[in-house]
Amino acid sequence: MINNNGFIGDWIKENSRVLDLGCGDGSLLETLTNKHQVRGYGLEIDPDSISQCIDRGVNVIEQDLNEGLENFADASFDTVVMMQTLQALRYPHLVLDEMLRIGKQCIVTFPNFGHWRTRADLVFSGRMPVTKRLSYQWYDTPNIHFFTYKDFEALCVERNIDIVNRNFVGGRASDLGLDSIWPNLFAHTAVYRLSK
Amino acid sequence: MANDLQSSKGQTAIAKTAVAFDRPLNLACGFELTTHELVFETYGKLNSSHTNAILICHALSGDHHAAGVDSEGKSGWWEHYIGPGKPIDTNRFFVVCPNNIGSCFGSTGPNSINPATGKHWGADFPTLEVGDWVESQVFLMEHLEIDCWAAVVGGSLGGMQAMHWSVVHPEKLQHAVVIAASLKLSAQNIAFNEIARRAIQSDVNFKDGQYLEHQTSPKDGLALARMIGHLTYLSDHALGRKFGRLVRSGDLDAAQKELVEFEISSYLNYQGDKFAKGFDANSYILITKMLDYFDLVKNYKNDALATFSNAKCQFLVVSFSSDWRFSPECSEEITDALIGADKNVTYLRIESDQGHDAFLLPDARYENGVSLYLNRVADQLEAEQP
Question: Where would you tag: which of A9, A43, A148, B288 has the fewest CB atoms within 10 A of its CB?
Answer without folding.
Answer: A9
